[in-house]
Amino acid sequence: MFNSLSEKLDKVFRNISGKGYLTEQNIKDALREIRMALLEADVNFRIVKNFVAEVEKRALGVEVMKSLTPGQQVIKIVHEQLIALMDTEDFELKAYNNRLTKVMMVGLQGSGKTTACAKLALHFRKKNIKPMMVACDVYRPAAVDQLQTLGKQISIPVISQDTKDVIKIADTALRQAQKDMVNLLLFDTAGRLHIDEEMMDEVVRLKSFVKPDYIFFVADAMTGQEAVNVAKEFYDKLAFDAVILTKLDGDARGGAALSIKAVTEKPVAFVGTGEKVGDLEVFYPDRMASRILGMGDVLTLIEKAEEAVDAKESEKLAKKMLKNQFTFNDFLKQLQSIKKMGSLESIIRMLPGLGRKLPADLKIDDNALKHVEAIIQSMTDKEREKPDILNGSRRLRIAKGSGRTVMEVNRLIRQFEDMKKMMKKFSTPQGMKDLEKMMNQTNQP
User: Fold this and answer.
1) What are 91-127's pLDDT values in tens digits?
2) Architecture label for domain 101-292
3) pLDDT tens track for 138-154
4) How many CA within 13 A on the CB side of residue 89?
5) Neighbouring C-beta atoms of residue 259, cutoff 10 Å
6) Backbone dihedral region for residue 155 (phi beyond 0: left; psi -120 to 50: alpha; all else: beta)
7) CB-based burial, 377-408: b 16+ in 10 Å, e otherwise
8) 301-443 maps to CATH 1.10.260.30
9) CATH assignment of 3-85?
10) SS3 11
């Protein structure tokens, strides 16, 4: 998501940055392009109008016109205005391990409520909060089964009953939660293909009975402006507290993420970044603004790495690398850690500088990692520890076992040996100096 918008804005900023000084006309031309880029990203036209007017007011002021780097100043202003547009006002879902917090998930059918429910439960379980889910979507075929399946997958209990009476189900869940000393009770409510009074009456009655601490509106980012319009109607009826935006990894143009706060006056709290139950991120407007402008998102990348990589294992691995004792078993562990962090494309786009240089329509095939994993897993333990014993017959067996070609096996072994040679080179004092020199050259504009 945002790839197309990022590419268009990058072109605008490259044109501005290339000028030694800016005129009023330069800035107005750039703002026209920014306006078009935002409208094409499906941002609400009133929001675009206000956004551009605010940027123009600041860009034509003294802070830009008298600046030594006017292009960078304009980028800074756009960055700050994007943050203001998506500001969460420090909203936080607070759950405690000594009391029960009740959360209702609402939204249209197909928006991803059920999966978001499981994602949120897992997110808080990692924080030592004891969650439980409640299947109150009694109309959609297999909705209860889906929640139960997700519950089993992440070992989180699900309360469901063979009845259409959601109040009865909620009552049972509240009693069970008190009995089991649950800290977070998540209600997955029914959605419809469109807004209707019957659905609204039911969720309003459920809200009155449950008295939730938080109500989350779950919106599909792929629906763009329609998601914003629906959010407004839900807010008028339920006064929800925040939004969970799903399918942010898809080909959505980004308008919903940029518009929803301004229209509903309620922030985006979480974003779904993939189909897996662990693909949920807390929404930070400053980080999202940096991603949109191709500045990367190092903080989120660090958080993902800390979650995926064991610190002790990492230290042990570093020592092995310095001693040139790195094996295919170590390589396999590293691959599996990278996979936990998300798709390769999402990781690469978080790196500062690279987001701008990559084309918007770039698709990086994660199957390449799976193929490498299959080849390594087809080796014996002895072969992984001592790759130099991999002769022709062993390589043929590995190729057949992994379903890859001998050429691919040979290429992986060659790349692995090249990597070990490079590690050995950089483990020396002179090698460290060479590495530092390379890093300094890379960081230069």
Assistant:
1) 999 999 899 999 999 988 888 899 999 999 999 999 9
2) 3-Layer(aba) Sandwich (3.40)
3) 888 788 999 999 999 99
4) 7
5) 27
6) left
7) ebbeeebbeebeebeeeebebbbeebebeeeb
8) yes
9) 1.20.120.140
10) helix
